[in-house]
Amino acid sequence: MTADGAVMTGPCCEKDGSSRPLSVVVLGSGAAAMAAVIAATERGAQVHVVERATVGGTCVNVGCVPSKHLVRSAQLQHWCDEHVEISDGCRCDGVPNAHKLHASRQALVERLRWQKYESVLDENPHVTVWHGEASFEDSRTVRVRSLAAQATQTETLLHFDRCLIAVGAEPYIPPIDGLASVPFWTSTEALASDTVPHRLGVVGSSAVALELAQAYARLGSRVTIFARRGLCTRTDPLVGETLMQALLDDDRIRIHCGALVESVQCEDGVFKVTLTTSQAVFMTDALLVASGRRPSTAALNMAAAGVSWHAASGQIPVDTHMRTNVPHIYAAGDCAQMPQLVYVAAAAGTRAAINMTGGEACLDLSLVPWVIFCEPQVAAVGLTEAEAQARGLRTETRTLPITSVPRCIVHGEKFGFLKLVAETPSMRIVGAQAVAAEASDMISTVAVAMRGHLTVADLSGMLLPYLTASEAVKLVAQSFTRDVHQLSCCAG
Ligand SMILES: Cc1cc2nc3c(=O)[nH]c(=O)nc-3n(C[C@H](O)[C@H](O)[C@H](O)COP(=O)(O)OP(=O)(O)OC[C@H]3O[C@@H](n4cnc5c(N)ncnc54)[C@H](O)[C@@H]3O)c2cc1C
Predict the structure, then answer these.
(1) In testing the pocket of ligand 1, which one of 25, 34, 59, 372 has its CB within 8 Å of the most ligand atoms?
(2) Short-list 259, 280, 266, 262, CA closest to 177
(3) Going by DSSP bridges, is the β-strand pair 293-295/169-171 parallel, antiparallel, or unpaired?
(4) What's the CA-to-centroid distance between 215 and ligand 1, angstroms?
(5) Is ligand 1 within 6 A of the CB of residue 165?
(6) Whose CA is nearest to atom 12 of ligand 1?
(7) Closest Cα to atom 47, ligand 1: which residue?
(8) What confidence category does residue 9 fall into, taking pLDDT thresholds of 50, 70 and 90?
(9) Which positions make up the binding site?
(10) Is pLDDT at 93 greater than 70 in this prediction?
């Protein structure tokens, strides 16, 4: 058995006892698919990958990689603007060159796509890649239609012993009057742009919406966010309040909460956005729609294979082994019923491959830390205080302002906190939420502690290095029993 609970078996072959390798068809070539391809071929399967667009899927091409590059570029620009005395010495002229930023973002995408996806597929003798759109013919066959752009149109039928659906998700476009006839951006266009609009309207308050909104503001746009409700409404209310304060500290950002966009028009390159709620009208030079992502399952003809899906969300329900309702067809990643995060997709892909090839591996989603890469970052893991109480747990919590964390003080951070939720009387940690420049590191530390079932006392007594973000975890644990303001400098 492996560390992640997988029972490994020998090389796989079909159940008829023949020595032919198991034939696995993988739909998609993103994070879930790639993890599955690697695990399935290691375990002896012959794999056919079907991809209708660019190999690599969302994360490397139009998701995590280019968005974090943009966020980082914008942070550096902001840092130069805020620290002129140092940045002058660093040859920062104060004007971002959007064209150069775009070129360097693209170069990174191409390099990582080759390293992590294309070369891995090319060099594996047990993998065949088919470029085209997949749809089910029946429960044992996938049809691949070659792409319209290809010179000769072909159709190929692939028969499989096992199939993994890993087709990901695409931007959800809300039903707003006029939207379909204007040249709005999704995150894909926002990341492909080599210009910075003077004014940018952002519809939505998803992680993607907030990250791109702040990045564009820091590169010079005047940004207006239209948020249906508030910010980060699914976690502790203090998170949304604190992030709101931090974002609004930049006078290039405006946020309209409770804003329902009624209609959009575009004339001579200027967008006119009308809100239902107040009938207010906003003019903007570009419009980003980032209201979440919907599984790309529409083209798959899943009914032909008997695979069930949720009509409303488009998601494919799977069990903890990534099995759909059809025993030899699996699903993983953004198209399946699981959080739309790349590390979840990859973990699900690996486990699906193990299970498809005769092993036994289950995906435990009880602890999924998540991060929004704004500045300050937002991150959380486990239960909020309200969620814990709704489950009947008795809780004790502490909230440590970042002004009590040495690293945050030295870095001059203005907004943020770390909140720890413990269940009583055991004082086991059941959740944490953070807003801080390095909230992701604080929450990763808490996630490891929760996996080890640690208590507040365990965390209080740990040696965590002085002037790290993780030190905040120890400090907030100590604040359950002591006034942290009275502690010595490095909180022994
Ligand atoms: C802007 C942005 C930023 C993000 N940032 C982060 C982040 O910081 N951290 C994080 O954890 N997650 C982030 N995500 C989410 C993350 O990118 C996804 O969760 C992850 O990439 C999903 O992987 P996947 O394998 O399920 O699907 P994908 O990577 O989307 O792959 C699916 C593939 O299937 C192909 N396909 C679809 N239909 C068919 C068909 N019928 N036939 C053949 N091929 C088909 C698609 O073309 C695609 O290549 C971000 C997403 C976006 C959009």
Answers:
(1) 59
(2) 262
(3) antiparallel
(4) 21
(5) no
(6) 341
(7) 53
(8) very low
(9) 68, 204-211, 292, 334
(10) no
Cα separations (Å) of 440 from 210, 298, 370?
Answer: 16, 35, 8
The atom number, within ligand 1, closest to the CA of 64 reads 5
Angle, helices 237-248 vs 207-218, to 10°: value is 20
* Separation of CA 444 and ligand 1 centre (Å): 23
Show the DSSP H helices in 56-129 as ranges: 57-62, 64-82, 84-87, 98-113, 119-122
Residue 89 has pLDDT above 80, yes or no: no
d(CA 267, CA 157): 47
The pLDDT of residue 4 is: 46
Render the burial of 259-268: b for 16+ CB within 10 Å, e for the rest.
Answer: bebeebebee
- Is residue 134 in contact with ligand 1, taking CB distance under 6 Å? yes
* Structure confidence by residue, pLDDT tens digits, 228-282: 999 999 999 999 999 999 999 999 999 999 999 999 999 999 999 999 877 789 9
pLDDT surpasses 70 at 173? yes
Mean pLDDT of 452-456: 98
